[in-house]
DNA sequence: ACTGGCACTCCGAACGCTGGAGTGCCAGGG
DNA sequence: CCCTGGCACTCCAGCGTTCGGAGTGCCAGT
């Protein structure tokens, strides 16, 4: 049905349209790409491509623009992910290497991603429920007030304050600290939650009240965030890159960026860092974002993704470059996190 | 020069223009506000106001719109800050009360502020150099790798990783921890930096190398962030509220939001929470933001501001309500922070 | 199967027109 | 002296019209 040349034509249309953001006609197409055939022939091919639903014309007697299906075919079959130049790679590593802690890594990543792709970048914080307990710290602030600090394997730190029912004994705190750490260190948060339940019983009845309070707060910290994932967003200024129809195109995206729940759905399930998820136009779950595409991938260790990162942009984006950048950044971040 | 009625006219013009975003003429003005005089009289007043530079007309034979000077006069003399309704106050407290830690407080504040003012909200994190050391924690992650956690009086947590020159002894760590805390707890970060310098000398020569490494990193954490202040931004979707001239109005703001340095300058010096800073149009330090106003104030304790929060929006915003909301939020946040 | 030619379509920029909202000014009246 | 009604003037925004160019579809010829 679609021979080689028709696919070439489609590829050329996508590339031209992405570059110019204007409907592309048969004549300009043969001028710019040397297809070796006449405009008339291209017109026939275009008619076929339109028949199949890969391109469309905004109105009769205008050039063609790709449909979502057209972009989909382009991404799947007609293009190869573009690798970054050595200079770019180097810039990435050196920029990320300067990070001082997890927060900083995420902030830098989001900035970096926005800069290279020139799109809006989204980075999900490493999820708590896939990471491990690295350390739990109990600190006395006043005799009646304790600070709990939870440090996870990804370097994420959660803190909670606990009001004690009565003045607490330093000895007890030290004891509790070491018992918590020996009981939980290295466990996944989900497992740790289970182990935690047994802790209060190992203490004498007099202290149990306090210990329970602490354990409860800790449990909350473990599970609380599972639903409410954290997210960083950057490069909103790149929204300029959508066309001019502010109301229809930009506004919905701007609104979505405020709603982290929506962003999480957009990013989708964290995939293996090798695999890129591309959602084109109406393929994504929100009607209002029909002119928006998402390119995302997981990051973390090689085998298992800790979280997802990606970009959001107009459907008429440069997919090969964008995909290359997202993939590269995901890899380097994974590496940085593994090292620290 | 400007009698009472002329000021009434200016007030009416500002209010109408803010409500409609359209140049307001003499007739509509007397219709909507009962000024008790005829359109012709108002026209004369308008001519005077224009003469003085408080209003202007986009083109001959159009209505008038306020100039930046007009808004300035309005804010300074012609309006009173609007207090929130009890329901709104209650909503604020209950929304902020749910916060679990400092990060959460800031996130909630920014969201809240954006929601009530329907503008872009900006909240600066409590600055390190004005807060005190609450606790310092040293955690062994591997025998060669230590995690330092600094907790400040505002609840802010900074963490750093230190590679030890040789395997470290648990005993030494415990010793160091308690010495650091007794030496530094309660001090301002700036003072603490000085006290810190003396710490290594109190250790035997064998350990001094390690201790110095830790102290150096800690010092960096103390001072590092002084320049690089953290900031949270929210409500970018409200940028829709600017007029339609996307390129001129919205784009520069969107770009500024990415540059935290610029935002800090916009917010300006943290003021006493009682005092509101209002920068109207070209009063702010960036040429591109000439159609943008900033309403900001400090928050923290009553006597001294920890940091600044505020909003950014079009010059034609509803100043009385916005100022009321910013002030109220600042107060409640200060309260929440004082309690925790 | 590809190509050149031709008639047709349709948008968008340019132009001119017109109604309405607004102004400035002036002379008259409390 | 300040206010008012009246009047001529200005100028934009919206609307309809025109027109050229870019693009298409189709057909007959190679």
TrEMBL record, chains A, B:
<dbReference type="InterPro" id="IPR021153">
    <property type="entry name" value="HrcA_C"/>
</dbReference>
<dbReference type="GO" id="GO:0003700">
    <property type="term" value="F:DNA-binding transcription factor activity"/>
</dbReference>
<dbReference type="GO" id="GO:0045892">
    <property type="term" value="P:negative regulation of DNA-templated transcription"/>
</dbReference>
<dbReference type="InterPro" id="IPR036388">
    <property type="entry name" value="WH-like_DNA-bd_sf"/>
</dbReference>
<comment type="function">
    <text>Negative regulator of class I heat shock genes (grpE-dnaK-dnaJ and groELS operons). Prevents heat-shock induction of these operons.</text>
</comment>
<feature type="domain" description="Heat-inducible transcription repressor HrcA C-terminal">
    <location>
        <begin position="103"/>
        <end position="323"/>
    </location>
</feature>
<dbReference type="Pfam" id="PF01628">
    <property type="entry name" value="HrcA"/>
</dbReference>
<dbReference type="InterPro" id="IPR036390">
    <property type="entry name" value="WH_DNA-bd_sf"/>
</dbReference>
<keyword id="KW-0805">Transcription regulation</keyword>
<protein>
    <recommendedName>
        <fullName>Heat-inducible transcription repressor HrcA</fullName>
    </recommendedName>
</protein>
<dbReference type="Pfam" id="PF08220">
    <property type="entry name" value="HTH_DeoR"/>
</dbReference>
<dbReference type="InterPro" id="IPR002571">
    <property type="entry name" value="HrcA"/>
</dbReference>
<dbReference type="InterPro" id="IPR029016">
    <property type="entry name" value="GAF-like_dom_sf"/>
</dbReference>
<dbReference type="InterPro" id="IPR001034">
    <property type="entry name" value="DeoR_HTH"/>
</dbReference>
<keyword id="KW-0678">Repressor</keyword>
<comment type="similarity">
    <text>Belongs to the HrcA family.</text>
</comment>
<dbReference type="GO" id="GO:0003677">
    <property type="term" value="F:DNA binding"/>
</dbReference>
<dbReference type="InterPro" id="IPR023120">
    <property type="entry name" value="WHTH_transcript_rep_HrcA_IDD"/>
</dbReference>
<feature type="domain" description="HTH deoR-type">
    <location>
        <begin position="34"/>
        <end position="62"/>
    </location>
</feature>
<keyword id="KW-0804">Transcription</keyword>
<keyword id="KW-0346">Stress response</keyword>
């Amino acid at each position: 049905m679609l021979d080689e040349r028709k696919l070439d034509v489609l590829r050329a249309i996508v590339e031209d349209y992405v570059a110019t953001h204007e409907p592309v006609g048969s004549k300009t197409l043969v001028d710019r790409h040397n297809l070796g055939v006449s405009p008339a022939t291209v017109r026939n091919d275009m008619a076929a491509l339109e028949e199949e639903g890969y391109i469309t014309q905004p109105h009769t007697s205008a050039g063609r623009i790709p449909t979502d299906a057209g972009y989909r075919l382009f991404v799947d079959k007609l293009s190869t992910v573009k690798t970054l130049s050595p200079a770019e790679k180097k810039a990435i590593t050196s920029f990320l290497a300067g990070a001082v802690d997890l927060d900083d890594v995420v902030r830098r990543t989001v900035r970096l991603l926005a800069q290279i792709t020139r799109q809006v970048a989204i980075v999900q914080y490493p999820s708590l429920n896939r990471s491990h307990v690295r350390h739990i710290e109990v600190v006395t602030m006043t005799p009646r007030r304790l600070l709990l600090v939870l440090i996870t394997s990804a370097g994420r730190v959660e803190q909670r304050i606990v009001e004690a029912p009565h003045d607490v004994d330093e000895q007890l705190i030290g004891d509790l600290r070491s018992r918590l750490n020996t009981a939980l260190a290295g466990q996944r948060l989900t497992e740790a939650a289970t182990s935690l339940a047994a802790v209060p019983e190992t203490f004498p009845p007099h202290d149990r009240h306090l210990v329970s309070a602490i354990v409860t707060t800790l449990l909350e910290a473990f599970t609380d965030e599972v639903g409410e994932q954290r997210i960083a967003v950057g490069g909103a200024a790149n929204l300029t890159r959508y066309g001019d129809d502010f109301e229809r195109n930009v506004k919905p995206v701007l609104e979505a960026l405020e709603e982290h729940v929506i962003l999480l759905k957009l990013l989708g399930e964290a995939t293996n860092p090798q695999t890129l998820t591309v959602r084109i136009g109406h393929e994504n779950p929100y009607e209002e974002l029909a002119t928006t595409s998402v390119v995302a991938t997981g990051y973390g260790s090689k085998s298992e993704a800790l979280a997802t990162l990606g970009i959001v942009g107009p459907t008429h984006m440069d997919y090969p470059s964008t995909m290359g950048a997202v993939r590269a950044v995901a890899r380097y971040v994974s590496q940085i996190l593994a090292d620290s």
